[in-house]
């Protein structure tokens, strides 16, 4: 016996919650590593290696500095996970119905790839604004320390486009 019917709203909601938990929590857990990686990419002279990057960050910002960008990471990757896991199931069923039962089985690998790519398209749109804020917080010293500081500043300087400049590279990834 199953907890819900396959393809029901509850099914999609549970898939989405699974995405929130798996993507949001795991990406937030590695924020210190991501912070150092981003800083190494932006300023390789200052952040020469992973261990040096951790050391420099702790010296300058304290241990709490390693958590910079945790809020946009949690929100952004939770939204990405919600869309990725939830829409994957939506598109898998939609495309399967379009192909018919026999063709959906015969072409299942292509169907799964198409459903995954379609879901990722929307998931990256959901992620992009928070990823943009996270990168500004983590790599531009003095720009903003929190999401609440970064969002209005970004919008005031560049408008809505500030939040979606990175969506094409996310799609390429």
Automatic annotation (TrEMBL):
<keyword id="KW-0496">Mitochondrion</keyword>
<dbReference type="InterPro" id="IPR018108">
    <property type="entry name" value="MCP_transmembrane"/>
</dbReference>
<keyword id="KW-0472">Membrane</keyword>
<keyword id="KW-1133">Transmembrane helix</keyword>
<dbReference type="GO" id="GO:1990547">
    <property type="term" value="P:mitochondrial phosphate ion transmembrane transport"/>
</dbReference>
<comment type="subunit">
    <text>Interacts with PPIF; the interaction is impaired by CsA.</text>
</comment>
<keyword id="KW-0813">Transport</keyword>
<keyword id="KW-0677">Repeat</keyword>
<keyword id="KW-0812">Transmembrane</keyword>
<protein>
    <recommendedName>
        <fullName>Solute carrier family 25 member 3</fullName>
    </recommendedName>
</protein>
<keyword id="KW-0999">Mitochondrion inner membrane</keyword>
<dbReference type="GO" id="GO:0005315">
    <property type="term" value="F:phosphate transmembrane transporter activity"/>
</dbReference>
<dbReference type="GO" id="GO:0005743">
    <property type="term" value="C:mitochondrial inner membrane"/>
</dbReference>
<dbReference type="InterPro" id="IPR044677">
    <property type="entry name" value="SLC25A3/Pic2/Mir1-like"/>
</dbReference>
<dbReference type="InterPro" id="IPR023395">
    <property type="entry name" value="MCP_dom_sf"/>
</dbReference>
<feature type="repeat" description="Solcar">
    <location>
        <begin position="10"/>
        <end position="94"/>
    </location>
</feature>
<feature type="repeat" description="Solcar">
    <location>
        <begin position="107"/>
        <end position="173"/>
    </location>
</feature>
<dbReference type="Pfam" id="PF00153">
    <property type="entry name" value="Mito_carr"/>
</dbReference>
<comment type="similarity">
    <text>Belongs to the mitochondrial carrier (TC 2.A.29) family.</text>
</comment>
<comment type="function">
    <text>Inorganic ion transporter that transports phosphate or copper ions across the mitochondrial inner membrane into the matrix compartment. Mediates proton-coupled symport of phosphate ions necessary for mitochondrial oxidative phosphorylation of ADP to ATP. Transports copper ions probably in the form of anionic copper(I) complexes to maintain mitochondrial matrix copper pool and to supply copper for cytochrome C oxidase complex assembly. May also play a role in regulation of the mitochondrial permeability transition pore (mPTP).</text>
</comment>
């Amino acid at each position: 016996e199953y907890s819900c019917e396959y393809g029901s709203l509850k099914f999609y909601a549970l898939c989405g919650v699974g995405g929130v938990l798996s993507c949001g929590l795991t990406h937030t857990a590695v924020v210190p590593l991501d912070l150092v990686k981003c800083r190494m990419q932006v300023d390789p002279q200052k952040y020469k290696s992973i261990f040096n990057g951790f050391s420099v960050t702790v010296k300058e910002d304290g241990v709490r500095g390693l958590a910079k960008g945790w809020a946009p990471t949690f929100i952004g990757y939770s939204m990405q996970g919600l869309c990725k896991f939830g829409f994957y199931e939506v598109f898998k069923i939609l495309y399967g119905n379009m192909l018919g039962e026999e063709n959906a089985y015969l072409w299942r690998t292509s169907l799964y790839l198409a459903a995954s790519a379609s879901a990722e398209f929307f998931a990256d749109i959901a992620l992009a604004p928070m990823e943009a804020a996270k990168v500004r917080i983590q790599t531009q010293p003095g720009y903003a320390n929190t999401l609440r500081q970064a969002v209005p500043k970004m919008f005031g300087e560049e408008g809505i486009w500030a939040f979606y400049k990175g969506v094409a590279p996310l799609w390429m990834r």
